[in-house]
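Hi R.,

Here's the chain you asked about this morning:
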Amino acid sequence: MTIREAPFRRVLIANRGEIAVRIIRACQEMGMEAVAVYSDADVEAAHVRLADRAVRIGPPAPSESYLRIDAVIEAAKATGAEAIHPGYGFLAERAAFARAAEESGIVFVGPPSQAIEELGDKLHARRLAAKVGVPSVPGTLEPAPVDHPDSVADLMATARGVGFPLLVKAAAGGGGRGMRRVVREEDLAAALVSGSREALSAFGDGSVYLEREILPARHIEVQLVADNEGHVVALGERDCSLQRRHQKLVEEAPAPGLTEDQRRYLHGLAVTLGKAAGLRNAATCEFLHDRDGHFWFLEVNTRLQVEHGVTEMVAGVDIVREQFRIAAGRPLSPEVLAAGERAATPSSHAIEVRISAEDPARAFAPTPGRVGRWVMPAGPGIRVDTHIEAGDRVPADYDNLIAKLMVHAHDRDAAIDRLRRALDETEIGGVQTTLPFHRVVATSAAFRDGELSTGWVDEHWDGEAARAEAVRRALLAAGLASIAAGPAAAGMLASEALPWDGGPRPAGRNGWRNGGRAQGADRWPI
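And here is the predicted structure, written out as tokens:
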């Protein structure tokens, strides 16, 4: 595509990290200049280095930089940006941000502010789903009267109708914030108050509602794209069931085990809701799939998803590129229309694991720090979206996602085999990461058999036990290596042979890499 054919001349990316890098690359491929914004913590970040221009917008704290609507809009105006792409997170689903761009004469690359406002309110989305016949998770359609003690009796009766255990959920946001699980009726009042307070702090809106907890269940979402002419297309579905604290860890497309009829039905539900909402650009409809085969609507995410890459690999389209075309007023491309036609009969499989600076042995606690050794996998069917290089620092101020490793193959078994190989090639030093967890997933019989649910991590992952086993194997490998190396090496303490953080690696294939890291140990043996 030549510059004359580019949707826009200059685009500002209102984000950071790997998604900013992903969008900048799309801009440059389409002949558009990319403008980055950055905080003081990101002066040397990859998205700043890759962009054609970069504008400082504040100190490290997100509230003083990436979440400042005024600063981002001013940066767009100052650089002559014709459009803003929000990525995901930060301001991506803030209707006020989209509206500020619209009022400034800047194109917002995403759904219009009104759609974000309406669908971002989960209660509004649930009411819309009920209106058009899309089944939602059983629950309430109006905010719970948290501040009205006289309504407690009616609320208790409503809760009994929903059924226990149930969830108190925030109407204005997600990610587990404001969510409370209630098993007993007597705990409901306290859960409503604490959930409402957290929702108010996180989203500026303390409205909460009740929803039945469906267990076991799978979390399945449908990728939608829509143009200005009213065409809404489902590009396929993704299974995102492997989660911790309602945050996704592994995603795959298509969802394993669904029939063609089930896919057509599910895609139809999502398209129906998208059309009813007047959706434009890219969005995702999320559902729960229970063990009886029913699909229950959860919510709509009016933005690009973290896991959009696996859909791109299976569908054979570039969703970010399509977002720009739609934002410029163009109809859905022939490639996207064709992908929608074949979405119910996918011919390949893709899996993504989110590699984060977290310790999976300590409840996935954040582990910010400076990255040492950094080796990403390569070869057929491998894609790595990242913003990290050796020596980069993972700041404590932001989300600790450091890479998305995606694999693509002709079927799911081959994709799992490829994932296992790719993870074995991956080496990260300096910070503890989630690699040990992902290696367990890639070798799990339950995962390969498609036994997926939102409770999978609790049922199949014991972080402390996994760490202990990794240490045991590393000690054994170190001991064997010292014996094989001869009397001089045999006297070296095993603990001296274990730590490896970017320095010289043990010689041979029987060293620490083979005995420890390949069994799931990255930094743990230290």
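One quick note: Residues 463-485 form the longest helix (23 residues).

Cheers,
M.
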